Structures are given as C-alpha cells and as structure tokens.
Amino acid sequence: MASRLPTEPPRGMRDILPAEAELRDAAAETILAVYRRHGFRRIETPALESLSLLTGGGGGENEKLIFKVLKRGDKLDVAAAVTEADLADLGLRFDLTVPLARYYAQNHAKLPDPLRAVQLGPVWRAERPQRGRYRQFTQCDIDILGVASEIAEIELILATTEALGALGLEGLTVRINDRRLLTAMAAWCGFAPERHGSVFITLDKWDKLSPEEIRRELAEAGHPAPAIARMLDLYATAAPASLSAVQRQLGNPTAEGAFAALERILGAVGAAAAGRFRIDFDPTLVRGMGYYTGPIFEIRSSSFAAGSIAGGGRYDGMIGRMLGRAVPATGFSIGFERVVDILGRAEGGAGRDDKRLAFLFEDGAQELGGVLRAAQALRGQGYLVALERQTRSPGAQRAALEKQGYHGVATVGPDGRADVHWFADRALRRSGSRT
Amino acid sequence: MASRLPTEPPRGMRDILPAEAELRDAAAETILAVYRRHGFRRIETPALESLSLLTGGGGGENEKLIFKVLKRGDKLDVAAAVTEADLADLGLRFDLTVPLARYYAQNHAKLPDPLRAVQLGPVWRAERPQRGRYRQFTQCDIDILGVASEIAEIELILATTEALGALGLEGLTVRINDRRLLTAMAAWCGFAPERHGSVFITLDKWDKLSPEEIRRELAEAGHPAPAIARMLDLYATAAPASLSAVQRQLGNPTAEGAFAALERILGAVGAAAAGRFRIDFDPTLVRGMGYYTGPIFEIRSSSFAAGSIAGGGRYDGMIGRMLGRAVPATGFSIGFERVVDILGRAEGGAGRDDKRLAFLFEDGAQELGGVLRAAQALRGQGYLVALERQTRSPGAQRAALEKQGYHGVATVGPDGRADVHWFADRALRRSGSRT
C-alpha cells in the first residue's frame, strides 16, 4: 500500500551534482576574494522577510513572484481566511537589495560608514520555469552605502570587472548610462512625465527592435506621435554616441548632474582599465528596476552573446524609506548562475585542479591502521584521498574510478607508504608519448 | 500617512554583521577543505522540498516545525480551503538528511558509488525562539552512501575530528554506541519492544538525571518496575564501561553485529587518533533521530561543556524507502552555529589575519588615477584596501577607522606609491616597546 515518496526536486528547482557544486564553490571563492581585496565585507540576511517589507514597493514585478509562507500556530485560521494576506506573513526574498536596505536601516549604528557590503546567496522567484531559468538561483551583489560621489560607482565597476576577469571571462564591456539623463531625454522629447516608465520599457529593447518596431510599440502604448518621432531622431544620431554629442543635442547642460557623473566615471574607469576591458557610454541602456536614481551600468562578455552578466546602478531613495533619513547607495549584481553556466561550457571549466586519489584497500583482509596512516600522509601532501574497497576486477574498477573523476589510485606499498598510480601517467606511457 | 517599513528580521531569525560573517566564512572554508581532502564532494539541494517528502516520516518531531509555502496561482483556492494541506504544497527543509536521501534516489545513476557527500547550508525550523536557538540556522553534514562496512564510520569520525581540530577546538572526545545494542539492552531488561523509543528518550538524559529521577520518569511512562530495576542495575555497573563488560552482562554475544562493529571502530579510530582526541564507548548514548539503525556517535569539546558539537549515525533504512532498494548510509553533522559561537567567544577568534587598509584620498581635489593605481598595487600585495574620503580631522578619522576594523591607513606618497601607516605600529611606537 505504501507508495514510494517523490524524488524529484520541486518544479523549477534543481539538484546540483558534485562537479557543478565544485565549479560553483570555486567561482564563489574567486569572486569573494577579489571583493574582499577591494574592502567589501561579507554580510548575511535571513532567507525569509516579512511580506509587508517584500511587497513594500522596492521589488517591481518581482513582488508578484514571491513564495509566501503560511502563518504558524494560532495565527493561522484557515476557515476564517478570505485572502492570501490572512494566510501568509513571511516570504522568501526575491533579491538581495530589498533585504540589504532593511539590514542597513536596522543595523546602521553597528556598521562601518560607508558600508561596502558583499552578499552571495539564493533568492527565490515563482516564475514560469524555462530553460536556464530557475525558481531558486544564486545572486552575488556588492553595494556601497553612504557614498554620494561617483567614486562609489568607480569602485564597483573596477572590482566587478576584476572579479569577472579572475574567473577567466573574456572581452568584457561595461555599458553605462544615467537615469537622470533618461528623464531629461524623455522630457526633451515631450513624453508625459508620469509615463516615462513606459517609454523606458520600450527603449530597453533598442538593440533588439527596429526603429519601426519601436515606433509601433510606443504608439500602441498611447504616446504622442511627435514625441516618438523626436526620440527616434535623437537616438538615430546619438546611438552609439559620445556623451558630449548627446549633451549638445539635448540642450540640457547638466541633466541634474548626470553628464558630470558619467564623465568622471568614464574617465577614471577608462584610465584604470588600461585595456583589460572597455567602458562605453550607451544612451539606450535602461536597466529594469524602477528604484534607480543615477548612474546605471551593466557588463557583457564576448563569452556570452545573449545578454549581460552583471548589472547595477545608484538607488539613493530606497534606504531613506526605511531609515527615515536619506542614505546614498549604489550596487552591482553578478548573474552568478549565468557566469557558472558560461564557465561550465568553457573548455577546461573544471572547478579546481585538485588531485583526487582513490586509496584501494581490502576490507577485512588488511590491517586498517596502515591504510589509514598512508592515506592521511597523502592528504598531508595536498591530495584529496577517499578510501575505496578493492574489487576483484582491478581494470574495470580503475575505469569506473576514472569515470567518477579520480585522477589515480593508491595502495599501501611494502614499506608502509603509499604507492600512487596516476591514470594520466598510464595513458601517456601506453601511448608512448612520455618523455 | 506612509508608515515606515519594518526593519527587524523575522522573529527568531537574524542579521549577520561583517565580523561574524567573516568568521563563518573562514570556519566553513576550514571544514570544507578538510572534508575535501578526505574525498567528500560538495552537493546542493534546493531549500524547498515537497511537503509530502518532508512529512513522509524521516524527520521525527521536526516535521511539526516546517515553514510551509502557500500554493501559487490557480492551485490556490483560499475560499474552498479547509485544512493546511489545501493551502500549501512546499516546505523549507528542516535538515539536510531527508533532502539527501531524495537527492540520492533521484540522481544515483549520475553519482559516484559510494557517494561521499558534504553539504553546508541553511535549514529552517519554526521553533519557539530562545537564546542561541534560531529559526534559520546552518548545518554542515557529511554522509557516506553505499558502504555497509564500519570503514564508513571510521572515515566520518576521522574526517570530522580533523575538521574540528583544524578550527582550533580543543579536548575533543568522541562517544560511540550502537542502536542495535540499545535494542538488545532494552529487550534484555524486559521492556516491551513497541515501547523502546520511550525508554531511549529517558536513557538519553542519563548524564543529567539521578538514578532515582530516571526510575521515576520511566515509571510515570508506564514501564514495568522489574525492567526499570534491571536497567538501572545494568547501567550502574556498566557506565562508564568497557564494551566487553556490557557484552558479558547482556549475555547477547553479537547484538546483531553491534559488538563487532563497535570493536572495529574503537580500535581503528583509537589507533589513528594517536592522542589528538579520545574515543569512548558510551552505552547511554542515544541520539534523538528514530531513523538510526547501527553505530551512533557524537563529539564533545572541552571548549563547550553544555553539549555535543557534532553528532550522527548509521541510517540504513531511509534511502530504500525512496529508491526501492536498500542503500547503506551513515552520516555526521557538525553543529555549525554552535561551533561559530564557540570560536567567536574564544580569544583570537577573528576569522582571518587579513590586513585591512583604508586608502585616504581627497575627493575632487586629487587626481583619482594615482589613488586607484596605488590602491590596486597594495591589493596585488595581498592587502584588503578600501577607498575612504579624507575628513578634516585626521585623528578622529583614524580612531573611527580603527574601530571599524581597519589595521592601518594608506595615502599616495610623493613618488606615486602608497605610504602605509599601521595603527598597531603607532601604538607600539607610542608605548616604546618596538624593537
């Protein structure tokens, strides 16, 4: 009668096998080491937050994708419940930015000022599962809270390009724009101020749609034809464009400081890049989140054509809503899953060059103490050593061990020390190519 | 009208500040490095599992403490819902063992055989919050699946004592017993087989209660007086006891193999310990989980008197319930939160001996390129370097930076290279103790 229990992970979530887990660990270590060198300090928040926080307006569309947690004990009255709000009080975080803002508001008195925070951890979104998109995925964010100057953006960009470079990602290009410039642009075109968000959603597709498709989408959204025409005209001449060309065209000398900010970031980062990566002004860059207030940026790699691998921007308004006083803030998020995916597909994408040995022994027939001592001595030399019971067919066993990721086998030699046989050595010897 | 958003973490959960986060990261790295050397391979499962799995019987009392996740979209009908089962389909994992069993059943064809798995991650239990006990906490488990021989227990114990030793925990003692021996003991005393669980719950308190209190608790639970008397008599002479003394007394020469298993583990581990730690047979050791089937063990440290810091045992029955064929399994779990707590309280419990520098600059007044280059050169030498804007009162700023965990400040020298001033140097110079 007893039916077997389900063994699949929940829909849209997945199990991570050892080879990928090791790749993920190695990537996380590499990224965190670079961020630590740049003075960022690791912090952690709980996976769960109150639903009132999560639905408080900082999450945009993501607020609709929250996994909500049932109230517990007396707080739950199933019979009397009418709406979801009667049933749930907590939710799994959908990003690391809303929890960071709460964390800072709660703990600022005990935190360094400014705070350079690095977070690495899972977030959850109940999206329709699709290839390469999961309902639990890892994000890696750095944020600088308490610095109004563009030095913060410069630090974020230099640290993140260095981290991505340390992972081996090639052909990095930073694209940068500014929300204030987008607003000045939309005002100059003549779009209604309260409808700028809709304009930006379409502008975000600039590199995917033709000008005619852009025009049609904006017209269908009800924007006035003269404004649409002006915008198409502006971007036809300005993209790709120099900052000064856009500045001349808009006739808005500061755009509330956006031009000076972009100029400083482009200058300092460009000089420090010294050819390791490119940084380009891109007036069509939008970045989705509504909370951005200043410079916005993303990074693409020639290793991955389909989209960006990191993105961020300044969000000076968010923390004030929780703390009651304004705190300037800017952040950069690496798409950890995408990066791991690229590394996994790259040749030589193995996590580490550890040497993994199977220490063969005859269980029961052999004095175990000698096996344990010899195996431990190998570990002391830096090898990864697992004990494996010897089978009756050594050839088949070695083939199986090699397939499982072992690089060689060891046994206790006559002198009590380990005899090591590397699989690669044997292959090389056999092919006669050993020098 | 807009009320400020809540900034406290959810009840029983907590924010982790930088110093503790760094300690946790360093502890995790140390433990994982030792386990890797012993051939364990990192795996990961999702935080959420189906409620049918979580409530399927492997979790004992923990099944009552599950954070349940509301169904989503059309699957949720609040008005028609009568019980929690109508509302929730997923839950946050309460341990790493039930998910591991599911993972193995699902992925065994792609996994090494035997599998040595190491997991490190958060689990969630809706317990009544109390000092030092949280509703989200981290566990670190190693498990060996596919090895029936006691070599598996020997590996678990040697690897875990080495990991705890590498963390600096002192005075480690392993206590070991066997579930089959507990059953043989309860049968010999004359307790009813279906009531053995209740006997073990009381026996588990052997080191906290007096014999008279043990007698009273067993009597109140309705156990027969002659069985209670026999048990008290047995343990009065046998605890602390040698294995052979218990074996003679019980008159059960094998206890289904328990004596041979314990003898082999005690012998091999005792020899390999070579004085680094103790291993003792303890016939009163119970371990709470009902799924254990063979040897059970835990580790205490003289650094922490109040309880064990790691525990585990053999659970040969659990995976078969999901896979449909029996797979021998044994595991060991480090109480990560407790270990971090001990390390944090210990003198010199800082996570790393990194050198953290604040690179002072005058924002706007100074050419930024030189600052960025000099700071990056220091990072290349292994220092952790953050940019900090110079204030008008250098003394107060240095004091504040030292309080925030910086070890010194740097500035650009006349030659374009960094001038570094260590706070400790200054203190030493001032006290005249510098050699």
Descriptive labels:
435 residues; 4-stranded mixed β-sheet; 39% helix; homodimer; 8-stranded mixed β-sheet; alpha/beta
Report the oligomer. homodimer
Q: Which range best describes the helical content of chain A: under 10%, 10-25%, 25-40%, 40-55%, 55-70% or over 70%?
A: 25-40%
> How far apart lie the N and C ends of chain A?
64 Å
Q: State the total count of DSSP E strands of chain A.
A: 15
Q: Which runs of chain A of at least 5 residues are low in confidence (pLDDT < 50)?
A: 426-435
Biggest beta-sheet profile of chain A: 8 strands, mixed
Strand order of the largest sheet of chain A: 1-5-6-11-10-9-7-8
Report the total helices of chain A: 16
Based on CA inertia axes, which overall geometry of chain A fits? globular
Most extensive chain-chain interface: A-B, 105 and 105 residues
Structural class of chain A: alpha/beta
Mean pLDDT of chain A: 90
**How much strand of chain A?**
15-25%
Computed CA radius of gyration of chain A, to the nearest angstrom: 28 Å
